[in-house]
Design brief:
two-stranded antiparallel sheet; 246 residues; alpha/beta; 7 helices; 11 strands; seven-stranded mixed β-sheet; Spore Coat Polysaccharide Biosynthesis Protein SpsA, Chain A; 22% strand; globular
Length: 246
């Protein structure tokens, strides 16, 4: 069977608030390179990924084009688009580009790999596992079984439930979908987001969009415990340790 086209969406429109920095975290240096370099490098080197849409702040597009994409020679970045107010807005902007042909060509019959640019430890092995699974399931996400016991709290902060640890996963990215499936699900989300907000439903990841607007189950695929998201200064220290170890 011929390989279907795989387009990556890399999200890099965040801020540095929780990092305690005026510099957006995706541009902070990690062992001498901007944080976003690591995810883009993994995609550039991958035999799975064919092209990429990079999502960043509207004010950063020129900087990213010149100082990240051109400077480091990322040939697979086909388009740089402005993010939105919420994460799902940013993903939707990228999906519009993918579906409506504002790239070299639209991707309507392949797969979309949505990845947080603040996760620097994306590997070819993770990408390959996700690609194998999405061909079977049409929707899959990287994650890992939790190591700790998890408690569900009530509104007053008391432990209300203890889910069986063997069934609880910590979700990561990439989150990978049939292109037509995820585009349609996101279009429905954008149409109904005000209704969801009024009902107190907050969409926190791409899998939840598919879970909410389709009847298709989302398969969990092993990522890696090292596939952390850089959110706080402590995370940078851990990431540096991982890189030094490697």
């Amino acid at each position: 069977m011929a390989k279907k086209r795989c387009t990556a969406v890399v999200l890099a429109a965040g801020s540095g608030k929780r990092m305690g920095s005026d510099v957006a975290k995706q541009y902070m240096l990690l062992c001498g390179k901007p944080l976003i370099w690591y995810a883009l490098h993994a995609i550039e080197q991958s035999s799975v990924i064919d092209d990429c849409v990079l999502v960043t702040g509207a004010e950063d597009i020129s900087y990213v084009r010149d100082e990240i994409v051109k400077r480091y020679g990322f040939q697979k970045v086909d388009k740089i688009v402005a993010g939105g107010e919420e994460r799902y807005d940013s993903v939707y902007h990228a999906l519009q580009v993918i579906a409506d042909g504002d790239m070299a060509a639209p991707n309507t019959d392949g797969y979309v790999f949505i990845h947080d640019g603040a996760r620097p430890f994306l590997t070819e092995e993770i990408l390959e596992r996700c690609y194998v699974e999405v061909q079977k399931s049409r929707a899959c996400v990287a994650g890992m079984p939790v190591k700790d016991t998890i408690k569900i709290a009530d509104e007053k902060g008391y432990a209300a439930q203890t889910p069986e640890r063997g069934l609880v996963w910590q979700i990561q990215t990439p989150q990978v979908f049939d292109a037509a499936l995820i585009v349609d699900a996101y279009r429905r989300l954008i149409q109904e987001k005000d209704s969801l907000a009024a009902r107190g439903i907050k969409i926190t990841d791409d899998a939840m969009v598919v879970e909410t607007f389709t009847e298709l189950p989302v398969k969990l695929v092993h990522g890696a415990y090292e596939n952390i998201k850089i959110t706080t200064p402590e995370d940078l220290v851990i990431a540096e340790a991982f890189l030094d170890r490697g």
